[in-house]
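User: Hello! I'm new to structural biology and keep hearing that structure can be predicted from sequence alone. Could you demonstrate with Thy-1 membrane glycoprotein? Please show me the input and the output so I can see what each looks like.

Assistant: Of course. The first part below is the input, the amino acid sequence of Thy-1 membrane glycoprotein. The second part is the output, the predicted structure written as tokens.
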Amino acid sequence: IVPYPTPYFPLPVLQAAHCQMIRDLSACLLGQNLRVDCRYENKTSNPLTYEFSITKDNRKQVIHSTIRASETNYRNRANVTMHKNLLCLYLQGFTTSDEGVYMCELRATNDYTGNQIKNITVIKDKLEKCAGFSLLIQNTSWLLLLLLSLPLLQAVDFVSL
């Protein structure tokens, strides 16, 4: 007896995959400011929403978010930049009162697998200074322009000799 082939119906639930995954969360001091880097892998072109928050004294406070409103004491001090697979939170005037557990939460639109969350404990005395090279990476267009103009600058310098 030859069985009839069963039709193949892929289930949408089984096809759902993580559209983004937080790879690394790190913090450093940039002068008097705190920088928290949230590196992620994005496997979708769907819009990405994020939230940076802090938990201290068993109370969660939103620092900067596209999901919900930020706490008033952080609104004027915090901003976020997004470049490729890196979200950077900058908190101006970082003091010991800003110490706590910082959390980065990512959510992609139509990602049914839930949010990606990672946290890091930030203590001012234990923070390292941000590396200068990573600052250049953030402003890639400036760096690229400089690198592209080097041959031109060398040629002009050669002609003037």
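User: So the tokens describe the shape?

Assistant: Right, they're a compact way of writing down the 3D structure. Reading them back into a model, for example: The chain is about 20% helix and 40% strand.
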